[in-house]
Amino acid sequence: MFHSGLRRWLPVLAVLPLLVFAGCNDNTRPGSIGRVAPSFTIHNGAETVSLQQDRGHIVVLNFWASWCPPCLEEFPSLMQLQKDMPNIRVVAVSFDTSRKAYDQFLLDNHISGITTAIDPTGHTNREFGTTRPPESYIINRHGVIVRKIIGPINWTSPEMLNYLKNI
């Protein structure tokens, strides 16, 4: 009896892994290398942050949140990268839904010298397929994603500086 019941489910069990893996990359998200980064415009009060305004420059697009300790760990090297390589644009977009938490984080942690924005709708990070900060994208001068980095890194490491110089 067990075998006849199992035999009936074998075709479903054989196809199930294919369906699961097919759903992981439906090609609607530009998270993969070689795709044009989605354009976005975020209005932060008096300032407008747009990926289009940085076309022609290498962009390090960093997604972060005030409640994310690894994000805080990464910020000093992002700020130093912007200082050391002014031809690169560092854009840090927050997942925060609270403008107050976002502003307080920037103030408390002396975040400056880079472009920051808050997208409380979460639209921007969803367009990139990013759900867990920190995640960063390196976008070339033509607007194409050339690298995705999950988790915090030292942006001023010799390896990363060399990589950015050779894009």
Structural notes for this entry:
The protein is globular, with a radius of gyration of 20 Å. The protein has one domain (29-165): 3-Layer(aba) Sandwich (Glutaredoxin). Strand 4, helix 3 (99-108) and strand 5 (115-118) form a beta-alpha-beta unit. It is 37% helix and 22% strand. It is of the alpha/beta class and 167 residues long. The chain has helices at 2-24, 69-84, 99-108, 123-127, 158-165, and strands at residues 41-44, 47-50, 58-64, 88-94, 115-118, 135-139, 145-150.
Q: Report the portion of residues in β strands.
A: 15-25%
Name of the level-1 CATH class: Alpha Beta
Mean pLDDT: 85
Helix content: 25-40%
Instruction: Name the CATH architecture.
Output: 3-Layer(aba) Sandwich
From the alpha-carbon coordinates, what is the Rg to the nearest angstrom?
A: 20 Å
- SSE order: HEEEHEHEHEEH
- How many H/I helical runs? 5
Short note summarizing the structure:
By secondary structure, the protein is an alpha/beta fold. It has 5 helices and 7 strands; from the N terminus they run αβββαβαβαββα.
Keywords:
globular, single chain, five-stranded mixed β-sheet, Glutaredoxin, 7 strands, alpha/beta, 167 residues, 5 helices, two-stranded antiparallel sheet, 22% strand
Topology summary:
Blueprint: H1 2-24, E1 41-44, E2 47-50, E3 58-64, H2 69-84, E4 88-94, H3 99-108, E5 115-118, H4 123-127, E6 135-139, E7 145-150, H5 158-165
Parallel strand pairs: 3-4, 4-5
Antiparallel strand pairs: 1-2, 3-6, 6-7
